[in-house]
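Exercise 7b. Backbone tokens:
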């Protein structure tokens, strides 16, 4: 007894046929390592974006009571007098802005104070700010408030992103460190 197989009944077990069979069956084709790395990077950046988004939401909710504002005004006036005495009045605005930015950042990220990577990162960022303040030739002339606010906002966002990326690399937020 002989069985004849028509060309339509032949089983082709080559790689192209197996790929087509998987597609027909609804299963996904095998992904390459590059696609896996890209997917992991997307997930990593999505988590970092969530952290930054939560930080910005939290920052928008901050409202300082008038005694705190008054204390800050006195502190900054004393800084002005001290810088004027030593002949560094041109550094007043950059120092004022940097102190404000870092005070704001430490207040928002205080939940991370128990991590050594947080303090190391902030020490590096503060050092970079000090070097930038000393390296740039600042002027005594008037600078529009919108320019200062834009630079400060950009500065805060860059530090938020830096901290979010390092936080993700160190394992992400812990259970007792809830995000707002």
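Sequence design result:
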């Amino acid at each position: 007894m002989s069985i004849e197989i028509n060309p339509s009944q032949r089983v082709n077990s080559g790689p192209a046929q197996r790929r087509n069979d998987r597609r027909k069956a609804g299963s996904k084709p095998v992904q390459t390592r590059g696609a896996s790395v890209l997917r992991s990077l997307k997930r990593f950046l999505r988590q970092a974006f969530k952290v930054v988004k939560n930080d910005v939401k939290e920052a928008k909710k901050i409202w300082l009571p008038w005694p705190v504002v008054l204390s800050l005004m006195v502190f900054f006036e004393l800084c002005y007098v001290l810088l004027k005495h030593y002949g560094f009045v041109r550094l007043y605005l950059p120092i004022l802005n940097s102190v404000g930015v870092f005070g704001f950042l430490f207040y928002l990220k205080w939940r991370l104070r128990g991590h050594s990577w947080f303090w190391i990162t902030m020490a590096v960022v503060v050092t970079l700010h000090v070097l930038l303040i000393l390296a740039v030739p600042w002027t005594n002339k008037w600078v529009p408030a919108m320019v200062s606010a834009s630079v400060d906002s950009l500065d805060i966002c860059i530090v938020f992103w830096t901290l979010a990326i390092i936080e993700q690399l160190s394992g992400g937020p812990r259970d007792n460190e809830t995000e707002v």
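Instructor comment: Helices lie at 15-25, 33-60, 66-85, 92-108, 116-135, 145-169. The two ends are 77 Å apart (CA to CA).
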